[in-house]
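User: Here's a chain of 259 residues. Predict its fold as tokens.
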Amino acid sequence: MAKNPMYGSNKFDNKLANVHGVQDGGIFNFADLPIISGAVAGAAAVATTHVYSDGLKLKIGYLGTQTLIGPIGTSSGMNYGFDQTNNDGIEWCLADATSQGIKSGAGITQYAVGSDAFYAELRFSIADVSGADECLFGFRKVEAFQAAVDDYDEMAAFNIVSGDIKTETILNNGGTTTTDLTSGGGDAAGNWADAGLHTLKVLVSSAGAVTYAIDGATPTGAATFSFDSGELVTPFFHLLNDSDVAGAVVMEMFSHGRQ
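Assistant: Prediction complete.
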């Protein structure tokens, strides 16, 4: 039987997969400690892999010199605060830039812009928001880990900077566009308080246009942005501590898939 030519990322393939009970992405709850493989801590941007029992696989890049290689379990999820040191942090994503990557199914690691619309969502808490110099969640191009998020080629993400909820975008290795969100989720002014628990969602349309939600509400003030058609992007999270340090950063739920 002839195969549909669009390598599993178009509407027909996705609907066919759903009929047979295999959907792209899923919902993951950080319920138990992951199995960890790869490099040990201590070097910037050297990846390990965290494999959870529910199928979630996170590629980890170190920022600065880390003394830990895995999260700490809590009663509500996994603490990804890691080594609490100024200018130290971590990044996780789904896709390994040195590999082909998985473009469909429950284990999907990357999405092709211009195929079906897709999204990523993360619920987490930050113990001390003034200690988060950078705390991003969204999509970026599938490429090697960068120590500075401004050095990615393409990106669309939330960034919680000392409790101020912003969006940041990069197109074609250009400058970073930072927009302060003034309402919609978080508190009334679009901020994140100490120990606050919030859900961030980034949505990409079939044309590549990006929209955002905080706790289910559309924030005010986000800049218009679209990824390049055909770009391969992956969900990611990036944390960099300030001198005050962020403390526990607890992941409670992560989901991603087709809209």
